[in-house]
Amino acid sequence: MTAVSRAFEQASARNRAALVGYVPAGFPSVAGAIAAAQAMASGGADIIEIGLPYSDPLIDGPVIQEAVHRALTAGTHVRDVLATVTAVAATGVPVLVMTYWNPVDQYGVAAFARDLAAAGGSGMITPDLTPEEAGPWLEAAAVHSLDPVFLVAPSSTDERIARIAKVCGGFVYAASLMGITGARGKLSDAAAGLVARVRAHTALPVAVGLGVSTPAQAAQVAGFADGVIVGSAFVQRLLSAADEQSGIIAVRDLAAELAQGAGQDR
User: Fold this and answer.
1) Domain annotation for the chain: domains and CATH numbers
2) Which of 113, 120, 135, 160 is the most exposed place for a label (fewest CB within 10 A)?
3) For residues 30 and 71, is the Cβ–Cβ distance under 8 A?
4) What pLDDT is attached to residue 185?
5) Which residues are known to be catalytic?
6) Residue 206 contacts residue 171 (beta carbons within 8 Å)
7) 266: pLDDT confidence band, cut at 50, 70 and 90?
8) How far is CA 111 from the centre of its chain?
9) How many CB atoms lie within 10 A of CB 185?
10) What is the pLDDT of residues 118-143, one digit of tens each?
11) How confident is the model at residue 187 (pLDDT cuts 50, 70, 90)?
């Protein structure tokens, strides 16, 4: 059982969904991203995603795009991502890197897997990598005991869901809607049905992301999924803060509120 699997199992034993929080490395600074991720963990996040800043974030909305732009402008490098993973993993919370495929391909797939594992990382979420093209990553992940997490969407056929679920490790990432990341006033009606379809093909936990931003929405997702993934809402707290420290406090408080929500409606 991997660290990610244990996090879901432990959350389930406490009759709650696991809370997965996201922050891009290098925003609001390298040290600030580390502190924000650590604050998420202290607030109640069960798993942390560290985003690898990339110039063409295909599925990210304006909030995360702005944060990633600032991180890249400040010169954030892959080494900063790995250093962030190391610092956050020291809290005891499993850490996944969320990244588009090009930076990993440029770094070298085997080398990235090796260095991610050495940094204390638990796996990687790859939103634009298909199972058909994932052979080198799956092999490297297996060598270093890393969880490969892939996404399914409401448009995914049952055949496609089965194929994706078969190569996932840790959990399956269910995108609640077709579109980009960002907080929304109402969750997609397709999310619950998608989770049910995924569960027909795998015993892995299923976590729902895209659009979740409030404790009430976390509670809603907890009613039908194993995990709640929140990104833009955390990043917005950092963007809106008067200074870095107040943003970190706001992130911690939101994590506590969302973690409480994830324990409702179970």
Assistant:
1) 3-260 (3.20.20.70)
2) 135
3) no
4) 52
5) 49, 60
6) yes
7) low
8) 22
9) 8
10) 999 999 999 999 999 999 999 999 99
11) low
Q: What is the largest CA-CA distance in the chain?
A: 48
Amino acid at site 68: V
Gap between the Cα atoms of 161 and 202, Å rounded: 9
Give the pLDDT mean for 111-120.
98
Q: What is the pTM for the complete model shown? A: 0.94
With contact defined as beta carbons under 8 Å apart, do 41 and 88 qualify?
yes
Residues sharing a CB contact under 8 Å with residue 141, sequence separation 6 or more, in sequence order: 113, 123, 124, 147, 148, 169
pLDDT at residue 178, as a whole number = 44
Q: Which residues of 50-82 are buried (b: 16+ CB within 10 A; e: fewer)?
A: bbbbbeebeebbebbbebbebbbeeebebebbb
Question: What's the token pair of residue 265?
Answer: 């409606």
Q: Which of 49, 45, 86, 82 lies closest to 64, judged by CA? A: 49
**Which of 27, 18, 17, 12 is closest to 47 using CA atoms?**
18
Residue from 126, 24, 36, 21 nearest 68 by CA: 24
Q: What pLDDT does residue 188 have?
A: 61
- CA distance linking residue 36 with residue 241, whole number of Å: 12
* Alpha-carbon span 57 to 181, nearest angstrom: 10
